[in-house]
Design goal:
The protein has about 70 residues and is mostly beta strands. Helices cover about 0% and strands about 15% of the residues. This is CDGSH iron-sulfur domain-containing protein.
């Protein structure tokens, strides 16, 4: 199985790439493509997918903590 990648876009969505099954709280499967974007701001009219409504209205730049090997 190939590795799924989820990219946290600056000021935007979560970009999902790879073979993944997206299900709702009742176990129903959403139809997806091999690459799709999930809403992170809560403003999309097409939840759980991003529709771009956030542009200019949502700010978030998340960065992973770099492991420098020191403790």
């Amino acid at each position: 199985m190939s590795k799924v990648q989820i990219k946290v876009n600056d000021n935007g969505s979560l970009r999902v790439t790879g073979d993944v099954e997206l299900i709702d709280g009742e176990g129903n499967i959403f139809q997806t493509k091999p690459t799709f974007s999930l809403c992170r701001c809560g403003m999309s009219q097409n939840q759980p997918f991003c529709d771009g409504y956030h542009k200019g209205k949502f700010e978030s730049k998340v960065r992973a903590i770099k492991d420098d090997g020191q403790e």
